[in-house]
Amino acid sequence: MEDNQSLQEEERMAVCAIYGDEVLVLDEQHSADDQQVYTLTTNIDEDEDVSKLSSLRILVMHLFFPATYPSTDKPVFEIMSKYCGPTKVDDAMVQAIQQSLDELFQPGNVVLFDWIQAVRDYIQDNIPLAIVQDIHADDGLSPASSAPPPASSTTTPTAMTMDPSKTLPKIYSSEPLMDRKSSFVAHVAEVHSAEQVDQVMSALLSNKKIAKATHNILAYRITLGGDRVLQDSDDDGETAAGGRLLHLLQILEVENVVVVVSRWFGGILLGADRFKDINNCARKALEDCGYIKDTAAVKKGKK
């Protein structure tokens, strides 16, 4: 009888042969000798005209395969998506997906393919399609065609004196970057505290279109005086994307800024190109907002 490791590898190859190589991607950062961790992306709208949809019905989850699967134990999953199409992921959805896994699993037999099909059927039957709308239409955000806020500007104060570190900054949203039907939009704001970062993120997520993005990847850097810098990132389910975005801010030496890149998955897996698209979109938005120094001019000035 084949051992568990061989059965897991054969199952992975079979699933990738049917759905594509990147539907099931090994998460090396969280895997160990006694447990393999994968990122599973389920998209049932790959055959739809994505230009007519405001959000695709995509579910991203982490799958944990114990060393005892499939001989005795079933996989364990964690849903990373906040929304699937226009529908927020809630306890009822998680319980339904868990129930389908429990019903399908039989010790000694692999279950992933049948379970993916069950998840797809559940999404098809319970989550409606959403019609596309212009991302910038009536969303309360600055359109890309308007002048972006300069890096040195601050939020215009009201008649009442307010602490600038607690005032919601103006948010600039870029033009979409399109790559094989996936859409990337970068949002940039000047921030001077972690509280302002939270305010910016809350303001963005209050926009239904942005909240329904497949991922909202965040990174920020804030100077605290001297050589101290407050910085952090969030992958939002796109493994390692937040760290890569933060690294971009570091090498560009930008300060007092938060960048959020929203990605709407278009049904075609991009592989490592998705990280390039995220960073290129963010870099262009930072350039539009005046955060990126003119390297050539700086070098010329030093001569």
UniProtKB/TrEMBL annotation:
Domain RWD residues, every copy: 10-126
GO annotation (BP), single: GCN2-mediated signaling
Location within or outside the cell: Cytoplasm
Assigned keywords, A-Z: Cytoplasm, Repressor, Stress response, Translation regulation
One cellular component term from this protein's GO annotations in UniProt: cytoplasm
Pfam families linked: Impact_N, RWD
Entries under InterPro entries matching the protein: Impact, Impact_N, Impact_N_sf, Ribosomal_Su5_D2-typ_SF, RWD_dom, UBQ-conjugating_enzyme/RWD, UPF0029_Impact_CS
SUPFAM superfamilies per record: Ribosomal protein S5 domain 2-like, UBC-like
Region (Disordered): 140-165
Family: Belongs to the IMPACT family.
Record protein name field: UPF0029-domain-containing protein
Organism, scientific name: Hesseltinella vesiculosa
